[in-house]
Design a protein that fits this description.
There is one protein chain. The protein is α+β, with helices and mostly antiparallel strands and 186 residues long. The chain folds into two domains: 7-64, no CATH class; 88-185, no CATH class. The chain is built from six helices and seven strands; from the N terminus they run H-E-H-E-E-H-E-H-E-H-E-E-H. It has a five-stranded antiparallel sheet with strand order 5-3-4-7-6. Helix 5 packs across helix 6 (167-185). The protein is elongated and about 85 Å long.
């Protein structure tokens, strides 16, 4: 290796680019068949390239210096930011462990963020079975856990939100509870 270490090679490359920058820029313009270059690029390479190049290459101003023809939009619409809409939801998910062991164990959960964001906290391979938006996810989740504790086999070894049973029965119970609570709020 002609260099003692990486720092020496970097220093050499930096010196080379500084000394030959004009030629390197000209090579890039020719190699990539550019049809437009900025004024600063033109000023840098105009002395080192064949003048016939400028017959096919247009010199343009940088974006920040170009005149703009846009005019500000005047509107009666309020300029206040939109109020944040809080979306709450309850869901049933089959976590990866249950999927891999082929168990009928499901977790009841709630979220105030989109499930795609919430799903990142579950292990890869977990499956969202059902999700419903609700007005008060804390209350709905509490009711779901209370009813599921009486109806299905609780799995305290996994957590208080885990239940064992057939998914079809859980889905029916889940939808029944969510609809009833939704009707009560309306």
């Amino acid at each position: 290796m002609p260099y003692k270490n990486r720092e020496d090679k970097r220093a050499h490359n930096k010196r080379y680019k500084m000394a030959n920058g004009r030629y390197l820029t000209a090579q890039r313009v020719l190699r990539t068949h550019q049809t437009r270059v900025t004024r600063s690029t033109y000023d840098t390479i105009k002395d080192v390239v064949d003048p016939s190049l400028w017959e096919r290459v247009e010199v343009i101003e940088p974006l920040c210096e170009r005149p703009t023809h846009a005019r500000p939009i005047e509107s009666e619409v309020a300029t206040e930011p939109f109020p944040a809409v809080r979306v709450e939801a309850v869901y049933i998910v089959k976590v990866r462990e249950s999927v891999l062991l082929n168990e009928d164990v499901y977790k009841i959960g709630r979220t105030t963020q989109s499930f795609t964001k919430r799903a990142t906290s579950y292990p890869k391979g977990s499956v969202l079975k059902i999700q419903r938006n609700v007005d008060d996810s804390k209350m709905v989740e509490a009711v779901l856990i209370r009813v599921f504790s009486r109806t299905f086999t609780a799995r305290p070894d996994r957590g208080r939100e885990y239940f064992q049973g057939t998914y079809e029965d859980m889905e029916d119970k889940f939808m029944h509870i969510v609809r009833r609570l939704d009707d009560m709020d309306a």
